[in-house]
Amino acid sequence: MAAAYKEPHVGADRPRSYHDKGHLHGFLGAVGDLQKAGVLQDVNLEVEGRRFPCHRLVLSAASPYFRAMFTSDMAESRQKTVVLQGLDAGMFGEVLSYIYSGTLHVSLDKVQPLYQAADLLQLDYVRDTCSSYMAMNVEHSTCVDLYKFADVFSLDVVRKCGLQWIDRNFTEVSSGKEFCSLSVNQLTEIISHDELVVKEETTVWEAVVRWVQHSREDRLDHLPSILPHIRFDLLTPYNVLVISDHPLVKEDPGRSAIRNVVKTSNLKRRVGMDTMEMALLFAKRGNEMLWINPEEGKYIRCDYNISPIAGAVTSDNDIYVLASIRKKISLFKYSHTGNEWEKKSTVCKEPIQPNDLTSDYLMAVDGHLFCLTGTYSVVVLKKYNQHTNKWYTCSTPGHDGQLGSHVAVSCNQHIYLLTYTELYCYDPREDHWCKKTPPEDSPDLCSAVAIRTEIFFTDDDLNKTIVYDTEADQWLDLTGRLDLTGRLNTDFNIECIVHFALENKLHAAVEGWMSSDEVSKVWQTQVYVYDRCERVWRELSVLPDNCWYMSTLTFPVARMHLPYLNTSHDDARVAPNPEGAHAV
Class of the 272-574 domain? Predict the structure, then answer.
C-alpha cells in the first residue's frame, strides 16, 4: 500500500530574524546607569579644569571625533586623561548627558555654545536640533544675534530667517543696540537688499549713521564702501544735500563717494516703499474680498475662488484663512507675488451637537497657527504643523461646561479666551491653560482685537469697550462712546461690529441700516478709528457696497505689496471711490 503524500511544513526550518524593540532603550539606559554609578569608566576628559570620567567605547560609538581619537595612533588613545580645548565645561556636560541618555535639553541662553560643542565633536543630531531651534526662535530680540552667529557658522536656514526678520522689521531693528554690533560686511549685505521694508531711504542712511557713530574711529574709513548701497536716487535733492553736509561725509572721500553714487546710481525701489498695512474683509456671499486702509483711502477688491470664514497673519507676514468647502474646513495660504490662495490642509473638526452654533478663530502665535472652535459648551484648540501639514489637538481650558458667548484672540505670545464669567490664557510652549483675572462687569461680548500687549473687548452696540493689559493682568475702561449718527445725521441701527488694528490704532467696522425716515433704508458698513489722545471715535469712511462677513470677529491685517495686489491677478479690481477717499 502506497504511503500517503504529506505536504511539507513550509518555513518550519527557515532562518528568521527577530528585533527586540526594548533592547535599544534598555541598552542605552544601562549605559547611562553605568555612567551615573561611575562603573567601568576608562578615560577622564578634562574641560576647563573640570574632569568628566567616561567610557571610550561609548564616546567612540557616539562621535566620529572621539572615534578617531581613540582608535588611531594619536597620543590621546593611550592617555588616561585627555584635555579638550575650545569647549565650555557646562556645554560639554550637556553633550555628555545627550550621549548617555539620548535626551537633549535646548534653550536660547545655551543653544549657541551647545551648537559650537556639537560642531567640534561632530554630533550631527545635536547640530541639526540646535539649528532648527534657532530658526524657530528668530524674533525681534534675537534676530541680529542669531544672524551673526549663523553667518560665522554658515547655518543657511538660520541666517535666512534672521535676514528676513531684519528686512521686514528694519526700522525697529536698526534702532536697537545689537544692530551696531554687525560687521561692515553684514551691514552692507542687509542695506543692499531689495526686500528691505522701509518707507523712505533716509531710514537706511540714519541706520548707517548710528552704526558708524557706535565706533566712529574704527568705522569711519568704511563709509565710502557702505555709501554705494544707499539708494540716493530715491531721495529728494534736498535730502541728498543734507546728507552731503553731514559731519560724517562733509570731508572727502565721503562727499566724493556720494557724488559718484548719485551720478551712477540706478537702483530700483525697495519692497517696503510699495507696501501698505491693510485689513482684509470677506464677503458674506460670493468669493469677493476687500483689502482696505481707510486712513490712506485705499480700497482694493479682488475675486478669489474661496469663501473664507476666519483669517490670521503670522509675524513673517504670511496670511492664512480658514474656508468652508463642501462642508469641510480647509486652510489656505496667500501668495503675495501671485495674489492667489493655495490650499494647505483640511481641518478635521470635532463633532458637535445639532443646532449648536460654533465660532471659528484662526490665530498666529510665534509663527505657529492655531484653530480654536468654540460652542456654548465646548472649546477645541488645534495646532498646525507646517512641516507635516497636519493639525494636532491641544489641551482645553478647564471650564465649567457653560461658556456661553465668548471671544478668543492671540496677544503677547499667548491665546486668550474671554467668556461671560472667566478669562482663560493658553501658553503654546507649555500646552497649558490657566485662569486670569476676569473683568468685574463683562459686556455682551461682540469683538476683540490685540494691539501690542493689550486686548480691546467691545459690546454689541459699541457703548462700552474694556481693555485688558496682558502683562499687568489688569482691566480698564476705554472712555469715549461712538457717535453713530453718521455724516448725514441719520439714524444708524447696528447689526454687527468688528474690531481690527491697523498701524497699531484701534478701528471698528460697524455694519447696519442707515435711515433718514421709516421708508428710506440703506445697508452700510462704516469704519471708525479711536483717537486715544482725544479719547474719541472718528469716522473714516463708508466701505464699498456689499454685505461683508462680520462674523469673523476680527479682520486679518498684513503688509501688502500694492503692485502685486493691483496688477498680478486677472480678477483684481479697484473698489468704488468712497466719499472723501481715493481708490488705488
Answer: mainly beta
- pLDDT tens, 42-83? 888 888 888 888 888 888 888 888 888 888 777 766 778 888
* pTM of the full structure: 0.61
C-alpha cell at 284: 458674506
| 88 alpha-carbon distance from chain centroid | 32
pLDDT digits (tens, 9 = 90+) for 291-315: 999 988 889 988 888 888 889 998 7
Give 160-269's CATH code, choosing from 3.80.10.10, 3.40.50.2000, 1.25.40.420, 2.40.50.100. Answer: 1.25.40.420
At residue 523's C-alpha, the angle toward residues 521 and 528, to 5°, is: 120
In sequence order, the 6+-apart residues with CB closer than 8 A to the CB of 321 are: 282, 306, 308, 309, 310, 311, 312, 331, 332, 334, 341, 362, 556
d(CA 220, CA 257): 13
Amino acid found at 86:
G
User: Contact at 8 Å (CB) between 151 and 143?
Assistant: no
Tell me the C-alpha distance between 85 and 46, whole Å: 9
> Which residue(s) pair with 277 in the sheet?
559
Stretch 489-505: mean pLDDT, rounded? 76
Distances from the Cα of 501 to the Cαs of 235, 505, 521, in angstroms? 31, 5, 30
Q: Cell numbers of 486, please?
A: 453718521
> What is the Cα–Cα distance from 279 to 183, expressed in whole angstroms?
38
pLDDT of residue 30 exceeding 90, the answer is no
Residue 453 backbone dihedrals phi, psi, to 5 degrees:
-110, 15
- Retrieve residue 288's grid coordinates: 469677493
State whether residue 427 is helix, strand or coil.
strand
Write down the domain spans for the chain: 26-137, 160-269, 272-574
Surface-to-core class of residue 405, CB atoms within 10 Å of its CB (0-12 exposed, 13-18 middle, 19+ buried): middle
Of 356, 332, 401, 379, which is closest to residue 556 (Cα–Cα)?
332
Of 30, 27, 59, which is closest to residue 42 (Cα–Cα)?
A: 59
- Dump strand ranges (E) for 50-141: 50-54, 81-84
Task: Please list, in sequence order, all residues whose beta carbon lies within 8 angstroms of the beta carbon of residue 501, skipping any fewer than 6 positions away.
Answer: 449, 450, 451, 507, 557
Q: Which CATH class is domain 26-137?
A: alpha beta
Question: How many CA atoms lie within 13 Å of 520's alpha carbon, on the beta-carbon side?
Answer: 5
Cβ atoms of residues 419 and 404 within 8 Å = yes
CB 44 within 8 A of CB 52: yes
Distance (Å, whole) CA 492 – CA 489: 9
Task: Report yes or no: 299 and 583 within 8 Å, Cβ to Cβ.
Answer: yes
